[in-house]
Amino acid sequence: MIHTRDDDGVRVVTLSRPDARNALTLDALDALATAVEDAPGPVVLLRGAGEAFCAGADLSTVAEVATDEDSARAFVEQGQETMTRIEEADAVVVAGIDGAARGGGVELALACDVRVATPDATLAEPGVSFGLFGAWGGTVRLAEAVGTTHANDLSLSGRVVDAEEAKSMGLVSRVVTDPRTVADELAANDAGALRALGRLGTHRGSKSERERAEREAFVSQLKTHADALAEHRNR
Questions:
Q1: Which of 33, 61, 148, 175 is such that its CA lies 20 to 30 A from the CA of 74?
Q2: InterPro entries, per this entry (predicted)?
Q3: Whole-model pTM?
Q4: What is the rounded average pLDDT of the residues 196-218?
């Protein structure tokens, strides 16, 4: 289900299960995280095949674990671990949302460093309509991304938003025809700085801890590029 292609500093990771709107099975979760973590370049573009980005968790898998508490907990923990692995990957991960993102598909996008949508994208957290809600870190990351007012609206209503409304609330940063153009734009920058910024953006420590991490990352980048900076200064 998980296909990868490396091209000019960008690893394109495609969820390729279009007949099921790219719904994620347990096996796919681990394969997805590994594909992102193993990227040789500084940027990963995450896409869905067919007419959807990702419909979320595979409902047959959800049904299988529903009656056993230990299995249900393991299912949630595996999803949370996958999202955290993507969030903490060295590469900068771009979610290219084209078509429907639902439930766990929205949570997957929220684990990425950058989220962009095509004009055909729609996003929703519909779990509340059948007694569930986002449990792969979604209740945490959604509020961080859009604030509690929008997060509560989306989670409690289950309503669908289009690309422009998603942009207006900060759920995505841009509406673009082709998400690959954004990945290429990022990949044209310094790989070390990209990775440092990606790690800093997901740091969840205290303010002083985040400032310390920022300081050390900047010092490291200065050391790496000292010669180039000196040459530029002397021009």
A1: 148
A2: ClpP/crotonase-like_dom_sf, Enoyl-CoA_hyd/isom_CS, Enoyl-CoA_hydra/iso
A3: 0.87
A4: 66
